[in-house]
Each structure stands twice: as structure tokens, then as C-alpha cells.
Amino acid sequence: MGCCDRRCALVAGAVFGAAVAILGGVLIPLGNSIIEGTVEKEAVIEPGTTAYNSWVSAGAKVYRQFWFFDVKNPQEVLQYGAKPVVLEKGPYTYRTRYLPKDNITFNANNTVSFLLPMGAIFEPSMSVGPETDRVTSLNLAVAGAYSLIPVFFHPVLETMIKLSNSSLFQHRTVKEMLWGYTDPMLKNTVGLFVHYNSTYDGFYTVFNGKEDISKVGVIDRWRGEGSLRFWNDTYCDMINGTDASSFPPFVDKKEPIYFFSSDICRSVSAMFEESMDLKGIEVYRYGLQPSTLASPTVNPNNRCFCRNPKTTKNCTIAGVLDISSCQDGRPIYISLPHFLHGSPSLLEDVLGLSPSEEHHHTYLDVEPTTGFTLRFAKRIQVNMMYGPSKVITVLKKVKDYTVFPLVWLNETAMLDDETADMFKKELLSRIRMLEIIQQVLLGTGLTIFLACLISYCVVTRRNNQSKLV
Predict the structure, then answer these.
(1) pTM, rounded to two decimals
(2) Per-domain residue ranges for the chain?
(3) pLDDT tens by residue, 295-354
């Protein structure tokens, strides 16, 4: 009778263990469903959700750091046609993206429209010197006029240069180079980012994710258009992805992520590189690929981005993007800092450059469950071009077209400790707790089931042996 009771108890224990294990197994899809439902609800861009407040105004502080290329041999370039030698000078750091989105309008088709205010506040404590520091750099007016006017107008440009006592290079303050100064030749304000302060980027219209969470944050229209009008090509004019501040939740690292950048007037993709720990949070690091600015001979998709045969040697040069069509005609050429991933000739024409993946690579660290970008470094370089002329005195010694680096910038941000702790407490800890409960139930149930099953077999075997005796 005792053996029967023991076996019955073991059977009951095995059944209980199996039930607990099954409960743990059932909780896995159920828990995943709960997690997905919560994330999808909180990722929608509408008042009251977790995503909305950080979407309206950047939670982390965003900075733009600038490094200038200071020319060390301007007279040798002018008099003997020497290659310019540059020395990097910086960073000069500014706080940006500190203003919330403006004119937010919710539309009937599950989209939301807004303007993105732009502004910059100098941060002396994060800079190598004051804005009054001076650099010797390319003369923006001379180089710009040279690129824009036909050769038969070079005599006119030569007269303008002489009358204004201008040259190929100039000595300007950091503030003047960035935000503008009155040029003596053009009698107008010129500067690398003269239109940045107190202006807007946009008008943007993005999907709010309410109808389809896989489209949350994806840009529907920019400046009222569903595609760009810069490249005269359907492929190159596509607006793909988000603005990179976030992506749809449940990121698949096997797939690229897409984002549009108005700074470079095009959409790009980034590929997964590695998983990293950021303040106790797992993030996926995505980076731009060398193919992004590869020459069309390597990446045929870039054919429509090649607009200037002079600077690209008939579209065979890698690493430079002519964005003049979206800069009101200003001859600006974008590259990665120090011509990273660019053709060797770019580094041969200007001496003193040293491209580095570590310091000049653009990356995004994305939390995969929510799709939020928790850290990023967007690094680009602004260049202009000059070349030979038989008429213009300051260009007579120049031997070939040169893409000259003016400044490179690093726009960067990272979530602070307080936000990281809140993120872990409000989301990740709950997910982890649910996972622990699932694992404990599954593990405990299997352990009880196996222990009872083994014990039942042992008891049964002993009972059978005793009967034989």
C-alpha cells in the first residue's frame, strides 16, 4: 500500500512538474505578445506615449563639434603650385537640437507634420579655444565663384579678386567661417553654415505608427514632396527610412536600416556591425558602408549621384558627393572626414590628412526592442573645389582640380545616466523579469517532472524486484 501511495505521489509530482513546465512554455509566446503589445503601444507618436515626449524634444544633449583644416603653406601653393599642407584644428563645440519640434500637426492619414528648428550655442568648456580663434582656409568666395562661372568670365573674376585684394586663401575666425562674414569681393554674407541659425529644417511629415507600427517615424514627405528634386533620378531622389533619431521597434540586425539626412541631401543605409553594452543596455551598432560614397564603377547605384566630371574624374573618384543642387547652387562637396573610404588621389592632392575608422566613421547605436537611437555620431566633411586658370593670377600655378577640405563635423549625442536608469527600470527590467519568470517556471517544472519520473521508475523497479524475491 505504501509503495502504491509513493508511486501515486510521484506520478502526481510529475504531472505537477509537467504542468509548471508547460505553463512556463506557454508564457514564452504569451510574454512575447505582452512585450510586443506594450512596445507597439508606447512607440506610437501621439501625446501620452513614451515615445512622444522624446520625439518632440531630444532627451539627450546633441552637440556639433567642428575641426578646421588650417593651411600651413598658402604662399607655396600660390607661388609654386605646391600641394596644400593642412593641420587639423579643433574641436569647436556647439549645442544643437535643443529646441523642440515646432508647428506639430496631426493629420487624418496617421501621419504627423512638423518643423525642426535649428540653432547653435557655443560651448567653450568643450572647445580648444574661443570662436575668435583664426584659421587659414580656402577663400569661400573665390573658390565658389571659380566653380560657378564659365571660363570666358575668368577675366571678370580676376578683376574682382584684384580690386577686393582677395586671394585663394584667407585668414578668418572660427565664428566667421561657420556663421558668416561680409566678403569684400562679393559684398555679401558668406559662410559654411550661414543659414543654420534661426532657421528650420523641414517641413517633415512622418508616419505616427498608429495604423502600422513598422512605419513609425518613417518619412512620408519632406518639404511637401514625397521624393527629392536634387538628382533628376527616381532612385537617387527616393526618401527612405526615418530621420535616424529612432526606427520602428523590433529591429532585425540581419536587415539594413535606412534614414534620410538633409545635411547630405540623400537617403543612406547602415548595416549591423556588432552588439554593444551602453550603460547596461544592449544596443546594435550600425555603420555606413564604404559603398555609400563609392564610385559608380564600384557601386553602379551611385551613378545618379555623380554630377561633376571635373571633380570626380569622369565619375571614377570615390568618397565625394556634389550637393550643390540642394545648396542653392553653392559648390559644396560632402565626404567623410579626412576622405575616409575615398580614392587615394584625394589624399595625394592635400597633405596632412589621416583617415581613421575609429575617429571618422558614422555610426548609430540602436536599442533593438524599441528602435530608439541611444547614441550616435554623424560625421561628415565639407569641401570646396578649385582648379587651374590661365587668367586668374592666384590660380595660374595650380596644376589640377583639387577637392579641398574646409571643416569636418561630428554631430553626436548619448543618453545620460538618468535616462538610462529610467529606460532600464520602465522597460528592460520588466522584460527581464518576465523572462526570468518564464525560465524559472520552465526550469522548475522540468526539474520536478524529471525527478519524479526517475524516482517513479526506481520505485517501480525495486517493487518488481521485491515481488520476484
Answers:
(1) 0.86
(2) 2-40+444-468, 60-98+121-195+227-414
(3) 999 999 999 999 877 778 888 999 999 999 888 888 999 999 999 999 999 999 999 999
